[in-house]
Amino acid sequence: MRSTLFRQALVTSGLVDALLLNRIDSAVVAKLPKNEQQQDEYYAALLIESGRVNRWQIEQLNKGRTKFTLGAYRILDSIGSGGMGHVFKGEHELLGRVEAIKVLPHNRSTPEAIASFRHEIRAQAQLDHPNLVRVSYADRDGETYFLVTEYVPGIDLRRLIRRRMGPLPEGVAACLIEQAAVAIDYAHRRGLVHRDVKPGNLLLTPEGDVKVIDLGLAWFLDEDATGVTPQGKGKIVGTSDYLAPEVIRHPGRIVPVSDIYSLGCTLYYALTGKVPFPGGSHLEKMRRHVSDEPTNPLTLNDKLSPTAINLLGRMMAKNPRERIESAAQVVDALRWLHGEHDQLAAADLVAQALLRPTERKRLLTNDPSGNLPDTIGLPTDVSSRVAEQLHEREKQEAEDPVYDDGDTPASEPPGPSGSLWRRFTGG
Q: Where is the Protein kinase domain positioned along the sequence (predicted)?
């Protein structure tokens, strides 16, 4: 059979060898469509079904990208992206260890961005705590800088609540935020302020543990400790739904208590399913953080205890002097809000949220068990249908739900508000 560009890219990438493609040809030659594009789609569906490749790898091949290595790592999948780079799932070719790889894209490799990325690497390398993602390696491949950390299977708090389409039980929320507070207290004691505490930066494992991630905006209180200037010195950085009032008023004044306000907003989101000030532009959100009170959480969740309401008020006080003074005090307060079984309950919720990959297998196989068949054989129109269904599912996950989680970084305002933002920040 004549090799198409897609099949050639498959072999060039090293994801699939020519021998396997020939075996597939022999098994399904009678079912192959005559159109070359449909053949490529058919092969893609078969390879996804067999587990040889995933949807992201197919998308990269279709874009003409055949390099799936970075240094000693083989790139397996895309995990996500943020203001400071893109995160991939990778496997060390010799050790066989699966890890997360944060990459600084070429189009963002300005001297300032490189300095900030190096700062993040050094900041994370100085921290070692079970509730913080641990660094294992950092390097550059040509002009590409990358940071390797432990890979945490699970889901972040933001996506967990999105998939639930509602708040968490009070005890579960308290258990999770307490673990985050423990990590933040550890960082504060070592002179580091996170500056971007939010639900999307709290990873939840299948065991109900929490890992705080993304120190791209972190700031050493003793700046000379790093020898480089962190991103956004003197500018408002962070995510607008979780910014403390003093960060907005005095961007150059970095204090640990600002992380407590952001953690309070994160707790508010976990308990209500809403950010404190939903809707509006970044500028409007910041104005409300400074001058307005958030919606009474009881109107969003009437099951909340007076203790939880009181704690939210203390963590989200506008005046830093009226706020809870330390993350350690937050830990002590949260322990009164949950019981010994709430971490198991959290693990159960994470497990429920992670059922989606199984649902995708069901779309591919039409098998209620989600198990993949031992033999290759699908209707000739399967690739188009599967691709369509998977695309729709991915699209639904990417779209914002009813619950406004406000995860757009304030340092990267979208759309029409950009000029106002620059006028406000001087950036």
A: 73-337
Please indicate whether residue 367 is annotated as part of the active site.
Answer: no
Strand ranges across the sheet with 202-204: 155-156, 202-204, 210-212
Which residue is catalytic, options 40, 156, 196, 342?
196
Let me know: does 156 contact 201? Beta carbons within 8 Å.
Answer: yes
The answer to whether residue 336 scores a pLDDT higher than 80 is: yes
Helix (H) or strand (E) holding 38: helix 36-50
Question: What tokens were used for 110?
Answer: 């300005």
Beta strand spans in 131-177 (E): 135-141, 144-150, 155-156
Task: Check whether residue 192 and residue 341 sit in a common domain.
Answer: yes
What gap in Å lies between CA 75 and CA 68, rounded to an integer?
A: 5
How many of the other CB atoms lie within 10 Å of CB of 94? 7
* Same-domain check for residues 143 and 238: no
Are both 131 and 220 inside the same structural domain? no
Where residue 50 falls among pLDDT bands split at 50, 70, 90?
confident
How far is Cα 261 from Cα 255, in angstroms, rounded to an integer? 11
How many whole angstroms separate alpha carbon 295 and alpha carbon 18?
60
In a shared domain, residues 189 and 295: yes
Residues near 283 by beta carbon (within 8 Å), at least 6 away in sequence: 417, 420, 421, 424
Q: Is residue 332 part of a domain?
A: yes
Distance CA 31, CA 377 (A): 8
The answer to whether residues 235 and 108 belong to one domain is no
Residue among 203, 189, 187, 104 nearest 150 (CA): 203
Residue 73 sits in a domain whose CATH number is: 3.30.200.20
Looking at residue 370, what DSSP letter applies? -
Residues 163-195: tens digit of each pLDDT: 988 999 999 999 999 999 999 999 999 888 998
Residue 36 and residue 23 share a domain: yes
Reported confidence tier of residue 310, pLDDT bands at 50, 70, 90:
very high
Range of the domain at 12: 5-62
DSSP one-letter code for 48: H
Q: Is residue 326 pLDDT above 60, yes or no?
A: yes
Q: Within this chain, do residues 188 and 302 fall inside the same structural domain, yes or no? A: yes
161 vs 154: CA distance, rounded Å: 13
| Residue in 372, 414, 354, 424 with CA at minimum distance from that of residue 153 | 354
Instruction: Fill in the DSSP letter of residue 159.
Output: H
pLDDT of res. 234: 61
Q: How many CA atoms lie within 13 A of 336 on its CB side?
A: 11
Q: What are 1-35's pLDDT values in tens digits?
A: 456 777 788 888 888 777 777 777 676 666 666 67
What pLDDT band is residue 362 in, cutting at 50, 70 and 90?
low
